[in-house]
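The following block was generated as part of the benchmark described in Methods. Ligand: zinc ion.
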Amino acid sequence: MLIGAEAASPRLRALVLGAAAGGGFPQWNCNCANCAAFRRGIAGFEARTQSSLAVSSDGVRWALLNASPDLGRQFLACRQIQPDDPVIVGLRHTPIASVLLTNGDIDHVAGLLTLREKQPFELFSTAGIAEVIGGNPIFQALDPKFVTRRTVTLDAPFELVDGVTARLFPVPGKVPLYLEGDVVDTDLEGEQTVGVELSGRHGARAYYIPGCARMTEALANRLRGADAVFFDGTLWQDDEMIRMGVGAKTGKRMGHMSMSGPDGSIAAFAGLDVARRIFVHINNTNPVLNDFSAERAEAEAAGWTIARDGMEVLL
Ligand code: MLT
Ligand code: MN
Ligand code: ZN
C-alpha cells in the first residue's frame, strides 16, 4: 500500500514493517476480544507483527528503526528489504545499511539476533541504550568486525542512511521492562527512551516515536507542523488491559500514553498541524485494531491512520 505521491526523485520513504506493540497481533497466548476474533476469522482484523519502521531516501539503502523479534517474518513480507538480484549483487547482500534503536525493549532489540550473519551495518543508539545492549553478552553475536556500534548524542544530527538525516531526542519513558527495579520511574526523560526526527533531502520532516509516556510542551513544539508523525498507539484507554482482565498494568505504568481521553494522544495532537498522524506500536487489546469499531472510526475522524504492516508512506 502506498500513501502519498509517487516519488519522482529521492525523498523520504517510510515502510511500516511491524505495526503492533510487544507481543504482536494476535499475541501467542492471548484470547482477548481482538485476538480471539482474529482467530475465529471474523472480518475486520488483520495480523500485525511487532514494532519496526524502515526508512530510505532512494529505496535502495534502508535503515531499520528498531529490530523486531518478528524481523524474519518482516523480511519475508517486504520485498524492499530483501537481497537484490544475485546477478547484480552476488551471494551476500542486504538493503539494510543501518539499525537505530529507540529503547532497549525486547520488541525493539530482539531482532538484532536475526542480523548476526556477518553482514556489515551500522548500529546507532544513545549511550544509555548502547550500555543495555553492551551489557548483554548475547549481542556479542553481532560480530564487531561487521557491525559498527555508533553512539549518538541527543539532539545532534547524523546521517542514518544515504540521504536521511536523523536526530534523537528524549521522550518521557522508562527503562526496559527486564531492567525494572523495585521502584520504577515511568516519566524519565533521558537516553532510555528516545524519539527520532527524520529529514529527507527535499526538506520533508517526519518523526518516529513508538513509545511515549506523556506529551510535554517541548515535544509538542518539536512536532508542530511536521509532515508525518508515527506515534505510540499502544492503548486506547489507560486501564484497558485491566478492564479486559488480561493484565495488571496501566498504560502509564508501561510508559505509554493512551489514544483517547483528555491526556490522550488524539487530544494532544489536535492543534499541532501534523499532516500525517499514524499510530504504530498498537497493542493487541486496542479496539482500533477492529476495522469496524467505534474507536477506529473516532481515531480516523480525528485524522489518524492505524498503521498496517507493509504500509509505505512517501514524503
Ligand atoms: C512496551 O512497549 O511496553 C514493551 O515492549 C513491553 C515489553 O517489553 O514486553
Ligand atoms: Mn514495546
Ligand atoms: Zn490479545
